[in-house]
Fold these 2 entries.
Entry 1:
Amino acid sequence: MSAHLEVPTPIQKPYFTKGTIVVAIVAALGLAAYIYRLAFGLESATNLNNQYPWGIWIAIDVATGVALAAGGFTTAALADIFHKEKYHVIVRPALLTAMLGYTFVVIGLLADLGRYYNVWHPMLPSMWQGNSVLFEVGMCVMIYLTVLYIEFLPIVAERFIGRVNLPGPLKVLNNIIDSWLRVCRKFLGRFISIFIIAGVVLSCMHQSSLGTLMVIAPTKMHPLWYTSFSPLLFLLSAIAVGFPMVIFESILASRSFGLKPETGILASIARYTPLLLGVYFAVKVVDLTIREAWPYLFEGSFQSLMWSIEMLVGVVAPIVILSSKKLRHAIPWLFTAAAMVIVGVLLNRINVFLVAYKPLYSTTTYFPSIFELSVTIGLIAALVLVYRFLVLNFPVISVPQTMTESTKESLGRMTTA
Amino acid sequence: MGFTRRDLLKWAALGTVSAATGTALGSEENFVTDCGENYGVLVDTAVCIGCRKCEWACNNEHKLKEADLASFEDKSVFQQHRRPTDDAYTVVNRFVAPEENNKQYTMKVQCMHCNSPACVSACIVGALSKSDSGPVVYDAWKCIGCRYCMVACPFQVPAYEYREALKPQVRKCTFCSDRLADGKRPACVSICPNEALTFGTRKDLIEVARERIKAHPDKYVDHVYGETEIGGTSWMYLAPTEFANTELPELNSENIPELTEKIQHGIFKSFIPPLALYGLLGLIMHSRGEKEDEEEKEGHNVSAS
């Protein structure tokens, strides 16, 4: 038991480092580009046009963002539903990533929407459109985001119960907030599983529906990616990228905070990846075979090149690396393989939404503008900044500790929560 | 409307005999009856003289780019292939018929007002809808500006007001739905000096088209574009050459949104699969809860090994 005596605690480190400042500058540039887009419109800020209505804000910020936030539901499923208890140490970081990931998906989407102030319209029953895949994605993402915030509440409660200390005249609220947090803790202590399972179901629904989006454009899509299997492929790749994302982040966080990486846990969770990627790859192969689409892979086009890179880098290579127990336990290899899976999914989403998309009457090609790139990169930087702030102030990351009265107490709380 | 009826009758009379004996119509009945009573327009590209008056009338009707009628006589625009934009819902383009020594023809393009519009199926808030009389209409007030309609459209028609920072709209041919409601014909049809545009119900127009083909087999290819393409469209075309030589895309009769909707409804509509998944996961979570210690041990062994 002692090896797993790791209790989530706020990390005791200064917020600002040289690295944080660089990231903050990148985020600030992104914010400037974001404001520019809001002020001057899509034509000034983007390279989108009538031929290419969607760009990287959809392919990366939304589609890839959602996929890479899959660590949240895959980890929750593994630790809480399948009760692989030793993985509990990674549940909170994965949950936080998912919560922030989805939050930034929405912020990124708002930049892309021409009428962002109408983003709430799908909630109105008078505008429900059950035929629209996008409607299903939108509703699921909205509900799931709410579920993620609810799942994060116990962490907030753990941090602030008995410690609510608002400044000045807000003091009068201290007791109210404290008792509200206690109610939350009590309620969620009993009913959190409802939300955990809902999170997994909602994830499966919209992860797959994101893959259905381009099924409506058969004549514009390259045959390497145009398939009615697309929803299944999106779901399988999201499930496969969940653990690599957790591994990638955990190693980065340990490095940034000077902690020892959780090699045992991470190597152990990486065992699943070759299997999950294998299933994804098998469905890809079956799909291409059924549709007799293999010849398109050898047509020597940009698309066939991109498909090959996507598969070799994102699927085949990580399967090979992570199948070796020795390499799984070597942090540099583990990190590289996890990063490759992530890049593979990023490439897949870019390929499906941009590379495979060929307008009927194209006179140009699409390449993102400097503003589009700034917003996309800036949002990732901003996510890192918020993540750092939250893990410095909330009990998210587990740090090895000796058994003391306070940790015993925390452990007790963890099991009730 | 009276004008249209006369127009239709004239053409109908030309091929009474062939229509009476013809069976071709029967085989395509599904598509004809599908939206047969919807309004449509038949574009006869063999008759079109490329005067671009329809462009002017459209701009004028919808208060788009202001320009006097004379400026539309400029034929130099044909040197480039144009697409409908947010300030030109319809454009006339030139194409050539290779079998006639590359003789030049012109054709108007605009929203086809499909029977099963992909844009309507795609729209997240129902801002686009297929009205009962045929036009696919847009309600800017509902629109969130996601532009999924533009991704979905198999004709690449909807255009976006990218330059508008605050209230951009999806812009496309409205089939003059306001004029239709007042019993008037679309502005472009009204102005067309050469009867290249025929307004009527889809059913009647298909008949007219078939009769024109029968009456002048040398003048037309035997294909009414839009009769069956993607399940049929309200706007249909006749051409003097294979449609592959025109800018209209080659499409089969498969209704485009159908596959997506089948997938979508198969997985979600009844909510049974998500609920079943919920129940299954709940069961796993509950039943495996008691094996906690065992799992823990197993985990130890793995990480220790």
Entry 2:
Amino acid sequence: MSSSNVSPPVSGKAIVAGRLKFADETEAATATKMAPNRQAARVFDVPVVVDETRCITGCHVCVESCPVDCLAIDPAKGKSHMKYDDCWYCLACEVDCPTNAITVKIPLLIR
Amino acid sequence: MNLIPIEADVLVVGGGTAGCVAAIKAKEALPNGVVILLEKANVKRSGAIALGMDGVNNAVLPGHATPEQYVKEITMANDGIVNQEAILAYAQQSHAMVQELESWGVKFQKTPSGDYDVKKVHHKGSYVLPMPEGYDMKKILTREIRRTCVKTENRIMATRVLLDNGRAAGIAGINVRTGEFVVIRAKAVILSCGAAGRLGLPASGYLMGTYENPANAGDGFAMAYHAGAELSNIECFQINPLIKDYNGPACAYVSGPYGGYTVNALGNRFMLSDYWSGQMMLEFYKELTGPNGPVYLKMNHLAPETVTEIEQILHTTERPSRGRFHAGRGRSYGSDWVEMAVSEIGLCSGHSNSGVRVNARAETSVPGLYAAGDMASVPHGYMLGAFTYGKIAALNAAEYIRQQSTPELDDAAISAERTRVLAPLARPDGLPPHQLEYKLRRHVNDYLQPPKSAHRLERGLNYFQYAHEELAQLGAHDPHDLMRAIECHVICDCAEMAARASLFRTESRWGLYHLRLDYPEQNDAEWFVHSILRKGPDGDMELFKRPVEPYVVPLDNDELQSYHQLRIAPSPQPATATV
């Protein structure tokens, strides 16, 4: 079987609504292994909150401070934001921000 | 391949505690040489002490302790399986390191008469030196790095040590901001990449809610392994008593000297010493999971000004968000006990006894490859051990390169590594790294978390081998994702090492760290040895025993047993305190 098949091969049985389309579970397992990966987006409540009225355009002190590199400058706004859900709630960004624009919350799963 | 490597005399990988001092000391020893310090994050805020440290846990200072006393204490705390010569090398240089740090501007707590204000937390001796102003440790180190003209490369993640006929020849890696593949050639490489801190999954389920700085994914353990270096006693896990949910230290080393202590739900003290050892963690675990659990850190009996003093340290250094965590739940040290729990497992010599095997010169078993700090095998090193071994590694590396020519780079190996590390970028629809990481680490909890047994460990091992199929499907949308994808490989390597080493040692030792339900007794006749793990000739992990190095500070049998007597007999009268 070629791994380039997007739609996995299914045995010749007629597909009936409400019935499984595979002849047996081995065929189902093989087919699901070969099916391509697809992704869905999910929204997170993130701990690092940036006050954009205080954040200085052109400054990236917090982005450099973050030990897990979860902050970035939003190219559309020129302001810092938490781009990746990787925060260690260490407060480096909050402590180092020259205008006190950052507030770090304890992540929801922990607080 | 037209890739021009960056050239260095000494390359330090990891700019945390050990790495900063290693780079400074290597540059001082080689004023005309090129010393490069690589850091996955930014040196000013990276590693275990990114936000400073609340104190030195193991200072060996004249008038308070002798190097020999310290060697004995750490030998006892590790059930005898130590290289005493390596611990002694640290202990003898500990005071000089404290003095050097002071000359750089680090402030230690002093008594009114000007002596170091050393506290007793360990079972036997006094080694804890508070640093109430320890919050700017990385600022001080960064200043020294600039002063000595060390070349710093931030946001570069090393992925493999390159070899020239078995000798370290540099590293390959990626820029985690641009995704650019990087090669650095060096005559000597010092690995100081910290603990394997993203091994177990915290009970909160939050991937980055680890005890260790989550940037410390175990990169150094994996790189040393793939370079052919020996790793020792990997089954001796790191497990710490931490603030429940917050998952940071409370911390007994700070509050203990002021009168804080660990109690059970009845308010009774049950351990003689709050110093973190495997034996202490076993007592802690028994109480936590027993009828008198959970376990708390008690400070509400202290005078309000004492509580304020503790808060000033705990809420400004190391993990300063502790304060807002407690306040957010409407609690305070002055009125409430702090609920404690056991951490996820990790690999970290700073608190336990597992790491890349080094001798008293910080040499690994690969020529030209040195290791220091939380990833090197000198046990219970903490911050000062990392500083001191950073210095030891640097001085020996500087000496080593004097007799060495520039190594040759293996183009085929570099090309293969480039293909390996960049592969996820070509699969944007591949498996998301955070999801696979969750799955890997959930399996670590399911099967490797002590108490251990062969059947469970084998189930874990089975998954970590199968996981390679899933690792091959990892995808990355950008360089940040790519870093996380490569870290999944590192986590899987460390998990496999942890499973295999735990299966190998068929006895129980180091309290909770290696508690085997199927081999509950310590068996000195067969297992008073280091267990060594390395990459075998067939590319698979192999394990074997190495004898414990001859002791330089002898202990009698009673002394060796003393960390097994930490339990306090239960008190008949419960204390009258409110939770």
